[in-house]
Write a structure and sequence with these properties.
The protein contains 13 helices and 5 strands. The protein is of the alpha/beta class and 275 residues long. It has a 5-stranded parallel sheet, with helices on both faces.
Length: 275
């Protein structure tokens, strides 16, 4: 039920303390629906009034109302168990659920269009992804470079990362696209702070609406990662990355068409592909 708990906070701007409570409820999803506010406070290491304020922030009259909602979610999850097949099949089905939730979030096309316009207008466009997120940043940037004149991948940490952020800002960048995935490298969050200090608007693709990235990004796009195998599955974040790229193309259709035609002409001249 942990994903259902996280869905409750979707789109809600939470304080760090409230995010801590949300994580606690997700981690103890099976028992959370039967705990008192005092017990949740003890588990999360916060005050009891903080738990009450958290419930109110989610639109409930108080914690008892939130607990009733959690119990409803527990009943729903129990009534529809997805335990058929082996562990590999269950992992794939969980990814299908992640994609289904992502599809629901994309009903708000205006929000994605806003992201596309923001990123399309950033020249250059820095794309940040460190450690586990580095392949996603590279994947996005490979295709983005076909429709955007200056995409800069930032996939190495250290002091040079700050240099590259400042250089991008000095060259005219106005926004940063960041991939922030578990286990949330400290250097990634440091880079988000530095990007904002440099005047960049941060757009973060991350795994959860209560991710640490929410403290440092103006726009947060959540897409859950799969956790049923030894290493995380990034199917939904990768899909969301391509959705964002589509929004960039839609924000500047004429420029996109011109650049794509130029690439195809170059590829044909150099015989890059077999088909």
């Amino acid at each position: 039920m942990n994903e259902e708990v996280l869905n409750l906070v979707q789109g809600v701007r939470l304080t760090p303390t409230q995010r801590r409570i949300a994580h606690c409820l997700a981690q103890h999803a099976g028992a959370a629906a039967y705990l008192s506010a005092a017990e949740v406070a003890d588990l999360a290491g916060v005050s009891q009034p903080s738990v009450t304020r958290f419930a109110i922030a989610l639109g409930h009259d108080g914690y008892p109302a939130l607990r009733r909602r959690l119990r409803e979610l527990t009943v729903t999850a129990t009534a529809h168990p997805d335990d058929t097949g082996n562990e590999l099949q269950r992992a794939v089905r969980a990814e299908m659920d992640n994609l289904d939730r992502l599809a629901g979030q994309l009903a708000d096309r205006a929000r994605i269009a806003k992201v596309g316009k923001l990123l399309a207008g950033s020249r250059p466009l820095p794309v940040l992804g460190l450690r586990a997120a580095a392949p996603l940043a590279a994947y996005f940037a490979y295709f983005a470079a076909k429709v955007h004149p200056d995409v800069r991948v930032l996939d190495d940490g250290g002091s040079l990362l700050t240099d590259r952020l400042e250089q991008a800002a000095a060259a005219g960048a106005t926004a940063l696209l960041a991939f922030v995935l578990p286990r949330y490298p400290r250097e990634t969050l440091d880079a988000l702070r530095e990007a904002r200090d440099a005047g960049l608007t941060v757009v973060a693709i991350t795994d959860s609406p209560v991710s640490p990235a929410t403290d440092h990004a103006e726009l947060v796009l959540p897409a859950a990662v799969g956790t049923d195998l030894v290493f995380d599955l990034h199917t939904a974040p990768m899909t969301l990355a391509m959705v964002v790229l589509q929004a960039i193309c839609d924000a500047a259709p004429a420029d996109t068409q011109t650049r794509l035609e130029a690439f195809e002409s170059s590829a044909a001249r150099r015989q890059l592909f077999l088909g």
